Amino acid sequence: MFTDYELEYLSGQHLGRLATAAPDGTLQVSPVGFGVNESLGTIDIGGYNMERSRKFRNVRDNGRVAFVVDDVYSTDPWRVRFLEIRGTGEALADPEDSRGHAGAGPIIRVYPARILTLALLPGDLDTEPHLVGMRSRDVGVARTEGRQTG
């Protein structure tokens, strides 16, 4: 699912941002800890009181998610990197296989449909910043709707 360079980047990061949509259409973006569940090709997000959080309820109610991990690699010259996932989420109250997330308890599992990256390939950081192109690909793992299980 994830390429080697995407896995390498994600393994060096500790914080991502999860975007969800409330039933009334209000958007919410939350900083979250995460792990990669390589066997499923998903991102597993856990945290304190996850099951009581608005983001958990949003995912349970409609499953619409986007997830991004980014960083500023350099300020001189200015160089940013990121990985964005567009897909669906699943609110899992008692996951059996949360290998991607350290810890037990409820998680949000993000199923990628599309992955976008910037400056993650070898050599990208040696290229003029404005010449490094964004890469995108459809991966087709996303579920058709979010749901709660467990």
SSE layout and pairings?
Elements: H1 4-11, E1 16-21, E2 27-37, E3 42-46, H2 54-62, E4 64-75, E5 78-92, E6 107-118, E7 135-138, E8 148-149
Parallel strand pairs: 5-8
Antiparallel strand pairs: 1-2, 1-4, 2-3, 3-6, 4-5, 5-6, 6-7
Q: What does this entry look like structurally?
A:
This protein has one domain (4-149): Electron Transport, Fmn-binding Protein, Chain A (Pnp Oxidase, Chain A), CATH 2.30.110.10. It has 2 helices and 8 strands; from the N terminus they run αβββαβββββ. It has helices at residues 4-11, 54-62; strands spanning 16-21, 27-37, 42-46, 64-75, 78-92, 107-118, 135-138, 148-149. The protein starts with a helix and ends with a strand. Mean pLDDT is 89; it is low at 144-150.
Q: Number of DSSP helices?
A: 2
Distance between the termini: 25 Å
Query: Order of strands side by side in the largest beta sheet?
Result: 1-2-3-6-5-4
- Report the strand count: 8
Q: What name does CATH use for the topology? A: Pnp Oxidase, Chain A
Order of helices and strands: HEEEHEEEEE
> Which quaternary structure do these chains form?
single chain
User: Biggest β-sheet: count, sense, barrel?
Assistant: 6 strands, antiparallel, barrel
- Would you tell me the overall average pLDDT? 89
What is the second-level CATH architecture? Answer: Roll
CATH superfamily: Electron Transport, Fmn-binding Protein, Chain A
Number of domains: 1
**CATH top level assignment:** Mainly Beta
State the secondary-structure class: mainly beta
User: How would you describe the shape?
Assistant: elongated
Helix content: 10-25%
Rg is 16 Å
pLDDT below 50 for ≥5 consecutive residues: which ranges? 144-150
